[in-house]
Structure formats: structure tokens, C-alpha cells
Amino acid sequence: MPSPDGAILFLEAPRAIGLGQVDRQLTHLMRSGSLRGVRGVALGRFLGFEDYPDRGWTVLDVLRDRLGALDVPVLGGLDIGHGDSPLSVPLGPIARLDGDTLTVGPAVS
Questions:
Q1: What pLDDT digit, counting tens, does each position of 33-62 carry?
Q2: Which terminus of the chain has fewer CB atoms gathered within 10 Å of its CB, N or C?
Q3: Where are the beta strands (DSSP E) in the chain?
Q4: What is the domain extent for residue 44?
Q5: By CB neighbour count within 10 A (0-12 exposed, 13-18 middle, 19+ buried), where does 54 fall?
Q6: pLDDT-based confidence at 25, cuts 50/70/90?
Q7: Residue 57 counted as domain residue
Q8: pTM for this one?
Q9: Angle of CA points 31, 34, 37, to nearest 5°
């Protein structure tokens, strides 16, 4: 597995996997140390989770709870992931996450 040191983590998921699965996957990544060194998190679409509570929690509650422990910038609401006409995002180029802006360099130089 490539080292996440200095990387911006991108996450998105459709509700087909369920809120509990989002929680378990994030918890596993956190506890295994797989996110050690991540410098920021960019969140794409979580289609089907809008107004979907599970035991009083929403997907936003789970994301805040788990990702808040990383103490890195988190930017959500990106139009990337499942759904109609999503934007694509290249994996691997230089990127910067500042406040409310994600800037991604070219995929090929």
C-alpha cells in the first residue's frame, strides 16, 4: 500500500453500503494507522444519505466524529463520486487543500 504521508484523502460512497459500513471503514482505517500522515480530506458525494439517520446519527455526524480525530482540514460537498454527471478527479497529482478550495494539478505533466 502506498504511504499516505502528505496525501489528501478522497472519500465518497453511495448509501448502498449503509451508514454502519461507513463508520466501520473509517474506524478501521483510523485504528490501523493507515491514515497516519494524511494532510487533508476531500469529501465527494454520499448519495442517498441525505436526511437518512441511523440510530440518531447522520453520515455527517459519522464523518465529523471520525475525521475530526485526524486534526487536518476537511472539505466536503465536492461534486465528485456517484450520481449524475460527477466530476472526475485524478489520483496521484500534486494537490492543495486550503480552507474551502481544493486545487489539483495536472494528471500528466
A1: 999 999 999 999 898 898 888 899 999 999
A2: N
A3: 8-11, 40-43, 74-75, 95-98, 101-104
A4: 8-104
A5: middle
A6: very high
A7: yes
A8: 0.87
A9: 110
Examine residue 1 and state whether it is found in any structural domain, yes or no.
no
Query: In this structure, what are the phi and psi dihedrals at residue 24, rounded to the nearest 5 degrees?
Result: -65, -45
The domain tally of the chain equals 1
Quote the CA–CA distance of 5 and 52 in Å, as a whole number.
33
Cell output for 34: 493507515
Q: How far apart are CA 80 and CA 88, in angstroms?
A: 6
Contacts of residue 46, defined as CB under 8 A and 6 or more positions apart, other chains included, come to 12, 13, 14, 15, 22, 59, 81
**The three three-digit cell numbers of residue 10, written as one number:** 478522497
**Residues counted in the chain:** 109
